[in-house]
Every structure is written in C-alpha cells, then in structure tokens.
Amino acid sequence: MTKFEKPDAPQVLSDNQAIWTKALLDAVALYGSYKKIPEAEKKSLLSHYKHKDIQELLFACNHHKCAFCECKPGETSNIEVEHFEPKSIYPDLAFEWDNLLPSCRKCNEAKSDHDTRTSPIINPAKEDPEMLLTYDSLRIVPLQGSGQEKKADNTITVCNLNCNRLYNARAELLISVTEYMDELKNKFEWIEEADTQQKRRVRITKLSNSIEIIDSMLRTDQPFSAYCKWLVTTFPEYQEAKKIIASR
C-alpha cells in the first residue's frame, strides 16, 4: 500500500454532487433506511458515481492500482470505485470525492461495509501507509513503534492483505528480485576482474543498467511497489551496487 494524491474532483461530480446526494437521501427518508430502498431504485440512484469521468480520473490518480493491495487489475479482474466510509452507513457521502478510492474487486468485497469511523483503517489518499506498515517475508505486518499498530492491524484484517492471492504475487516478486541480486553479485566479481579502467567503466555501466531494471520495479506506478521497495532493502547487494556505481 502506498500513498497517492488525488486531484480536484471531476467537473461532472462538482456540478451534480448536491443533486445526486439529495435524491439518495430523499429515498432513504421515504423508505426509512438505506437498506430498505428497493434494489432497482437504489442501483439507479447510485449509478452516478460510476460515471466515466469519475472513474477515469479516480483510477488514473493511483496508476490504475488498487488503493489497498496494490494489484493492477487486468482482463481477468476489475478495478472499482470504493467508498472508504461505506455508503450503506453514510449515504450522505456516496458522492463525496474525498470518500472515493480505486479498489480491486477482491479488496472491495473484503472491506464491504466495514465502518471506518468506529474502527479506523488506513486511507492511502490521506496518510502514508509506509509509516504504519512493513513486511515480514511474504506477510504485511504493522510497523512497531508507529503508535498506530491497531489501525494497521485493522487494515490488514479488514482488507485481507495476507491471503494466498497476495502471497503468490509477493512470492513471484521475491523470486525475481532474488535472481536480480544474484546477477548483481556476479557482476561485482566481473567488475573486480577488469584489468583496465576502460573495462571497469564499461562493466559498471552494465551494472547500472541492472540497477535501473530493479529500480523500475520500485516506481509507484508499478504493482506491489511498496513490497518491492521493502524487499530490496533486505539485500545488501543492492546498496553495494549503488556504491560501486557512485564511485565510477
């Protein structure tokens, strides 16, 4: 999970938020509660937050990644508009831009109608998850000493961030990064064997190219970048490569 910035609300939402909210709250008053609104009518009233302009801007602000698990849904899964404070409990926030997050279907279903007011979880559009979360091998865990361990633990549990789907994704990255680190070690020996400064410079350039590939996995537009960022810190080869490159 990484922090991301949201731009201003799309014009269609700014223009219509009050109208759409009033219509929904009128239905809540008419039927006595949100849950009692007939499903067809409720679906129609809520359809506006799925407007193309809203979805496109929301999904793009986090590079089309899920705000919670950092997967990048493709053809076999979906990215959806998620209400951080659930619309079933807080219908007045159903069209509030600050309340909308991009989420994969798995995380959206896991979070469901969890009340984030009474049992807070991390909102990555408003706070930096790296200050509250870290990793232990393939598991995401609360960062000890943050003072917000309970919120971190709630986030992991509510969004089901330690599950086979995510273990498998992290395991694949662990294998890839480990293979890259093995390549770095081989390049260290290759550089030491250089018998001229010209050969050394050329070989360090190749080492730099390898580091660029690894660094590309840490960019926030990449899936599971937070895990990759943590993972490379567990390998001394990464820092050693940086030192060699800086010394050329």
Describe this structure in words.
α7 crosses α9. A hairpin with a 2-residue loop joins β3 and β4. This protein is mainly alpha-helical and 248 residues long. It has helices at 11-31, 39-46, 52-60, 105-111, 149-158, 164-192, 197-216, 225-233, 236-246; strands at 79-83, 100-104, 133-136, 139-142. Strands 1-2 form a two-stranded antiparallel ribbon. The protein contains 9 helices and 4 strands. The chain folds into 2 domains: 11-129, no CATH class; 164-246, no CATH class.
Radius of gyration: 23 Å
Helix and strand element order: HHHEEHEEHHHHH
Number of strands: 4
N- to C-terminal distance = 35 Å
- The coarse silhouette is elongated
Largest β sheet strand count, sense and barrel closure? 2 strands, antiparallel
List the strand order in the largest sheet.
1-2
Into how many domains do the coordinates divide? 2
* Percent in helix: 40-55%
Q: Uncertain segments of ≥5 residues (pLDDT<50)?
A: none
**Total of DSSP H or I helical runs spanning 4+ residues:** 9
Question: What is the arithmetic mean of pLDDT?
Answer: 94
Please identify the structural class as seen in this structure: mainly alpha
β content, as a range?
5-15%
